[in-house]
């Protein structure tokens, strides 16, 4: 069987070329007689792989020199705690914008460490838009502002970068590397790997150097960004294979023409899919047009009883993982960087055919 089109929200599709390279490298990497998984993380070979991955990521995002790039573990979920542990710097409170389930989880965790001021939330509107900035109620004493540029479950994406006087912290898990980004606007960016970076098991943190070292008493060493930075993310054994695969994805992205090229492709893919949904009268997406995610496209069917049939028929046509998140139901097509335009075309054709037969 040839590879299917995979619309999974995460762990998500990887570029086929990356998987093929990994397959070629798997058993015996560059005639060293062993795989990357079997090498010391401190040996010259792996250190070169790790450094190249970091450099390629720096090139792709044009990360300024006064930012550290960390490759950590524990996923984005660990960052929900690690951010307040490291960034409060003696202050008591932090601002959060709530645009969906992942914002809510970040807020719940931060409450263990800080007084959380939810400066704006779209919960009453069932997370269908980014609250207008004029309604945000920021706290003058906040240590930082945290937000989720792309909410993976609700498919809600910010169409702007907030401008605030405190360090801006962003959970970019589901939209990092989907378009160029001005990193200098942020104090800290974090992103779980398993969507646009690589396989699960790694989380990338990009942090401005002056925010390091605000050590909170009693913080475990492994949680300290400054320790990770000082040790090149090798204070303990890093997830070497995930790091290597992420590096292959960065090389692949460069070969696609970098983030401007991938952003144009992503815009085209999303416009096609939303266009088909809006034109149908059978499928619907409830998100405010300006905040529709380019990465995660949730949609409903006119008759929810057809959902199981839709998923079954889609799978039979090699269109995988289209079920919405268990907390919201419906359908969701995640169309990250590695999901080709042909996958979106095939999905649109299938949806039109399904509507003709069942609509
Ligand atoms: N934040 C966002 C925006 C996510 O989409 C996810 C995972 N889907 C997470 C956080 C949690 O990531 P992890 O499972 O890597 O902890």
Automatic annotation (TrEMBL):
<dbReference type="InterPro" id="IPR015424">
    <property type="entry name" value="PyrdxlP-dep_Trfase"/>
</dbReference>
<feature type="binding site">
    <location>
        <position position="42"/>
    </location>
    <ligand>
        <name>L-glutamate</name>
    </ligand>
</feature>
<dbReference type="InterPro" id="IPR015422">
    <property type="entry name" value="PyrdxlP-dep_Trfase_small"/>
</dbReference>
<feature type="binding site">
    <location>
        <position position="152"/>
    </location>
    <ligand>
        <name>pyridoxal 5'-phosphate</name>
    </ligand>
</feature>
<feature type="binding site">
    <location>
        <begin position="76"/>
        <end position="77"/>
    </location>
    <ligand>
        <name>pyridoxal 5'-phosphate</name>
    </ligand>
</feature>
<comment type="pathway">
    <text>Amino-acid biosynthesis; L-serine biosynthesis; L-serine from 3-phospho-D-glycerate: step 2/3.</text>
</comment>
<dbReference type="GO" id="GO:0004648">
    <property type="term" value="F:O-phospho-L-serine:2-oxoglutarate aminotransferase activity"/>
</dbReference>
<dbReference type="InterPro" id="IPR000192">
    <property type="entry name" value="Aminotrans_V_dom"/>
</dbReference>
<keyword id="KW-0718">Serine biosynthesis</keyword>
<dbReference type="InterPro" id="IPR022278">
    <property type="entry name" value="Pser_aminoTfrase"/>
</dbReference>
<dbReference type="GO" id="GO:0006564">
    <property type="term" value="P:L-serine biosynthetic process"/>
</dbReference>
<feature type="binding site">
    <location>
        <begin position="236"/>
        <end position="237"/>
    </location>
    <ligand>
        <name>pyridoxal 5'-phosphate</name>
    </ligand>
</feature>
<keyword id="KW-0028">Amino-acid biosynthesis</keyword>
<dbReference type="Pfam" id="PF00266">
    <property type="entry name" value="Aminotran_5"/>
</dbReference>
<protein>
    <recommendedName>
        <fullName>Phosphoserine aminotransferase</fullName>
        <ecNumber>2.6.1.52</ecNumber>
    </recommendedName>
</protein>
<keyword id="KW-0664">Pyridoxine biosynthesis</keyword>
<feature type="binding site">
    <location>
        <position position="102"/>
    </location>
    <ligand>
        <name>pyridoxal 5'-phosphate</name>
    </ligand>
</feature>
<keyword id="KW-0032">Aminotransferase</keyword>
<dbReference type="GO" id="GO:0030170">
    <property type="term" value="F:pyridoxal phosphate binding"/>
</dbReference>
<dbReference type="InterPro" id="IPR015421">
    <property type="entry name" value="PyrdxlP-dep_Trfase_major"/>
</dbReference>
<feature type="binding site">
    <location>
        <position position="171"/>
    </location>
    <ligand>
        <name>pyridoxal 5'-phosphate</name>
    </ligand>
</feature>
<comment type="subunit">
    <text>Homodimer.</text>
</comment>
<keyword id="KW-0963">Cytoplasm</keyword>
<comment type="pathway">
    <text>Cofactor biosynthesis; pyridoxine 5'-phosphate biosynthesis; pyridoxine 5'-phosphate from D-erythrose 4-phosphate: step 3/5.</text>
</comment>
<feature type="domain" description="Aminotransferase class V">
    <location>
        <begin position="5"/>
        <end position="347"/>
    </location>
</feature>
<dbReference type="GO" id="GO:0008615">
    <property type="term" value="P:pyridoxine biosynthetic process"/>
</dbReference>
<dbReference type="GO" id="GO:0005737">
    <property type="term" value="C:cytoplasm"/>
</dbReference>
<keyword id="KW-0663">Pyridoxal phosphate</keyword>
<feature type="binding site">
    <location>
        <position position="194"/>
    </location>
    <ligand>
        <name>pyridoxal 5'-phosphate</name>
    </ligand>
</feature>
<comment type="function">
    <text>Catalyzes the reversible conversion of 3-phosphohydroxypyruvate to phosphoserine and of 3-hydroxy-2-oxo-4-phosphonooxybutanoate to phosphohydroxythreonine.</text>
</comment>
<feature type="modified residue" description="N6-(pyridoxal phosphate)lysine">
    <location>
        <position position="195"/>
    </location>
</feature>
<comment type="similarity">
    <text>Belongs to the class-V pyridoxal-phosphate-dependent aminotransferase family. SerC subfamily.</text>
</comment>
<keyword id="KW-0808">Transferase</keyword>
